[in-house]
Amino acid sequence: MTSSVHAVWSSRNALRLLVRRDLAVKYQQSFLGYLWSLIEPLGMGAIYWFVFGLLYGTDTNRHLGDASSSYPLFLVTGIFAWMWTNSAIGEATNALTGQARLITTMRMPREVFPIGRVTGRFAEYLAGLPILFGLAIFFALTTDGVTFGFNLLALPLAVLIQAVLLVGLSLLLSSMNVLMRDVERFMRLVTRILFYATPIIYPLSLVKDSDMPSWVKVLYEINPLVGIFQLHHAAWYPDEFPDAFLLSTSIGGSLVVFLGGWWVFRRLEPAVLKEL
Length: 276
What we know:
There is one protein chain. By secondary structure, this protein is mainly α. It has helices spanning 2-10, 12-27, 36-55, 58-64, 71-93, 100-105, 112-142, 154-179, 182-196, 205-208, 214-221, 224-234, 244-275. The chain is globular and about 55 Å long. The relative contact order is 0.14. Keywords: Cell inner membrane, Cell membrane, Membrane, Transmembrane, Transmembrane helix, Transport. It is a multi-pass membrane protein.
């Protein structure tokens, strides 16, 4: 695995070119271009704010406390991070099947192709950070609950753990999808479930204070994305910082997925190349 990681690092220039090509192809016939990477999450945030902030916002506002007045920031923070997750999983799953001719003719580590999809979607996430910081500054000046301080360090930590998790998933899913095409369809269902099974549009306390059985809550919390999204929210709301169990679960789970995904990719690579 060490030699494989070194080979990928040696091909970082090719990775950069692949990312630039994917972004250019994705938006080449679009009038608004890269703005779509901002419009979509902002539009989703507006819809969820109307539904859960205005129409059915009693429980949400009660659990957010002082942060309820800055609920749009809470939403956009989660949705921006989720768009990276959802797009990376969806596009990385067919990263090998969609580039079969390129993979079989170019001399480079095949891991570059799914990793390139994750990196490309991360670039779109970075494009939205100025808007995120602008909203945070606005709500910090006009409402209570938004705090700037050492809690901002939670954001790069969240990004790092999320990147490790997504790279592992991309390697695992892309290789399996070549041999079993049902993987792509199955993951569409899984990502829909994960969206509501992760504290993206609602605070974690809403789950902890619910009447669900304790074993359901434990299953909920061992999802690595729960701790990751708590870190994203903690960048503005220090009270949302995950406890030791959630943090260790997210870090440990992400590392397991990363190592397992890389191992599976290497083991399946001969069969994948034969299939392609």
